[in-house]
Amino acid sequence: MHVDTPIKVRYGETDMMGVVYHANYLLYFEDARLDFLEALDFSYAEEIEAAGYMSPIHDLEVHYHAPLRYGEAGFVRTSIEKSQPMKTVYHQRVFRASDDPAVDKPLVDARLTLCVVERDTFKPVNLKRTFPELYAKYAEAVEDSAW
């Protein structure tokens, strides 16, 4: 399973060369992960945060191949690469709006590992025990990806 989240590059997201500043891709990825959860019929705010948990990034690997520029449209394709009780690995790729992910190389290719922690202590929790419904949905959504 994958979810495509549209991007429209705003002026404030670019550097002096008119290209998306590298750190702003992380914001696109965050929006896309929330869209992915919504596609699973699971609300981060209502089900994870409201229960006193957070889901921070534990590990991040990003490969920048080509930039998006001010005014361009694109999308983030998000999928689950691996789901384990203590971590979830997302594969997120950025394409131009006109690209076909089946044939076009992504502009940005990223792998992000997230965990779930208690908000107050930052102690990691077992997703399978704490959010069994989400864990089951992740297991069904896992998609092989060529990294």
For the report, how would you describe the main beta sheet? 5 strands, antiparallel
Instruction: Work out the strand percent.
Output: 25-35%
**Strand tally:** 8
Radius of gyration: 16 Å
Mean pLDDT: 95
What global shape is seen?
A: globular
Which strands sit side by side, in order, in the main sheet? 1-4-5-6-3
The DSSP helix count reads: 4
Low-confidence stretches: none
Helical content, roughly?
A: 10-25%
In short, what is this structure?
This protein is an alpha+beta fold and 147 residues long.
Task: Describe the protein's architecture and organization.
The protein is α+β, with helices and mostly antiparallel strands. 24% of the residues lie in helices and 35% in strands. The strands form 2 sheets. A 5-stranded antiparallel sheet has the order 1-4-5-6-3. Strands 2-7-8 form a 3-stranded antiparallel sheet. Strand 7 and strand 8 (124-125) form a beta hairpin.
